[in-house]
Every structure is written in C-alpha cells, then in structure tokens.
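for ur thesis appendix - DNA-binding SARP family transcriptional activator. copy paste whatever u need, i formatted it the way the template wanted (i think)
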Amino acid sequence: MINFSILGSFELRTRQGVWVPRGPKVRRLLALLLLRPGQVVDIDTLAEELWDGAPPRTVVATIRTHVYHLRQMMAKESGEPGLADLLTTEPTGYQLRVTEDQVDVRHFQRLVADGRTALVAGRTAEAAHLLREALGMWRGAPLTNVPLGPVLTRHVAHLEEKRMRAMELSVEADMRLGLHRELIPDLRGLVASNLLNEWFHARLIEALHLSGRRGEALLAFRDLRRVLHEELGLEPSAELQRLHHEILAAAG
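the 3d part is after this line
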C-alpha cells in the first residue's frame, strides 16, 4: 500500500522507498489534494493556493499543465506506475482517489476521536494509549518541506489546533491515571512552548502539587501571573486562582 505523510515533512512511502515530488507548485498541488482525499478540489481553490489569489489569465490551462507534470512524476519517479491513475480529472477540478487509511492526517484524526470517546466513556487507559499513538505520528510541523500558500497555511493552522487538543486530552487521561510525576517534564515543555496557555499551566501546577512539590507549584503560579501581567495585563483565570488557594490552604 502507498502511504502519504503530511505530519512532518511531506513524503510518499511506496514499496520502493520514500518519494517526494520535485517542484514547489507540483508539491503544493499534491499536498492540497491529499488533505482532501477522495474529494474534488475545485479550480478556484487550487488557483488560490498556487498563486495567492492572483492567478494568471490562463489559470485553467496552467493548472492542467501542472497536473500533467505531476502525473508524469508519479508514473516515472515514484516507483509505483499505477500511482498516476489515482489522480483524476473531474468536471470542476481534480481528485486524488486514495483512501483515508493511506493519509497519516486522517489516521491521526480517527485515533484522537476514538481516544476522546474512550475518555468520555471512562476507559481511561485505552484513551491514554490511543492518544499517545496519535501524537506519536507527528514527525514535526506539517508539510515542512512544502512552500505554503494561503490554503495550505489555513490547513496547517487547523492541524496544529487539532494537535494541541490531542495533547490536552492526552494530559487529561494521564492525570486521571495518576501519572502526575511522570507528566511534569512534558508539562514543563508544553508550558515553555505555549506561554499563554493557561490550561497547560494549570495542569503543571496541579501535577506538582499532587506530587508533593507544593513550593514548585506556587513558584509556577507566580511565574504564570507575571507572564500574564507583562504580556496581557491580566490576572490568572478563576480556575487557576482556586488551585492557588487550594495549594496555600494545604501548605498551611
């Protein structure tokens, strides 16, 4: 089976190895088709991505030429001659006829959905396993080797939000399993890379507190309060204020 990877550098994995199409526009074209597997991507969307809203007068013919070159590369360079047949011309645009199982983004989204369902149902260990598997699919920022136009930029931002939500669900599952000490290093990393995300700060403070490290928990709250005040002129949320008072009460 041919597999397409988007969660990191863009690449296709075939029986012959890894293949990445040459040419920035051809690569963007294929990436956009893969983000909508089995769906028709219309000419207007392709034009917006490839020319940032300022397409040439011969846009339809030019896109047709890019598709022709992509098909040639798929047939001659990918190691899978039948791959080119999956790229079809439709009345309103183009479609890549691959299944969702072949695209890592779709697999990631399905694992997260299953993990969320398991968490809601109280199957916490199963949820934690599914969410770790989902997050383990990420090899870096999406499409790192593709020059992004406006449409792909929106897709990447959406994927990063999905990843953030998966991280939150994973932390929640591990907290329910009592893995407070084990979570502290990861939470410190998440806080460092998401300074204004109060949810991650709250989980770090909570994990420190439940691990018997109340002094560090109070210092973490102080650091957050300083960041919020300096960056936004705000105080921590009501949830964090309550958590702070609980730690102070326990310390007393």
